[in-house]
Amino acid sequence: MAEMPVLRRHDLVHLRSGARIEGVAAAPEVLLADWVAQGRPFIARRPACADRGDRVPIGLPLPLALGKARLALAVAPEAMAAIVPPPLLADAAAVAPPGWAQRIGALLAAFPEARCFGSLAWQHLTGLAYLSAGSDLDLLLPCASVREAAAAAARLAAIGAEEGPAIDGELVAPSGEAVQWREWASAAAQVAVKAIDGVRLARREEVFP
């Protein structure tokens, strides 16, 4: 039996052809089988109380045409073919609406290593329509220190003040834990720290080295 993989939030999971997916009551089996056959990914999700300890919790946000439902699924470790990080913003930018070009250009100039998740990422990954008029630009920015996190939050605030889609980004610590950038930019003594196994409140100095 394969070992349980170590997953981080927003990791993308590709499954082997013919993989048995549990939790399919929420979606037609043929949809999930075709999803795998097309080489489209699933996403790591937070384990729920009902999840089995020997199964890998994965999720699937469906496109606009299928109602944008979020499916909670699970697979055995041996069903996994690959685990990859979320896409680079530079790659996903090709499918962004024309009105996003200036904002994305400014973000890439400041953060060439930025990755993205949410609607833009899924439209890029699948070729299906996920973006709507109200979609945010969801970013992941790695920060190695408190100083880098502060600088990133300040730069995001400056870019976000210009016209363009709302920026809903996370600052990601070396541990894989993340903090919403607006919360980090606030004067709060404690912040909500997100990880694959849950959310915790932590003092600011505990988040980044």
UniProtKB/TrEMBL annotation:
GO molecular function: nucleotidyltransferase activity
Organism: Rhizorhabdus wittichii (strain DSM 6014 / CCUG 31198 / JCM 15750 / NBRC 105917 / EY 4224 / RW1) (Sphingomonas wittichii)
Domain Phosphoribosyl-dephospho-CoA transferase MdcG N-terminal, first and last residues per copy: 8-86
The protein's name in its UniProt record: Malonate decarboxylase holo-[acyl-carrier-protein] synthase
Ranges of residues in domain Phosphoribosyl-dephospho-CoA transferase MdcG C-terminal: 89-204
Keywords noted in UniProt: Nucleotidyltransferase, Transferase
Family annotation (Pfam families): MdcG, MdcG_N
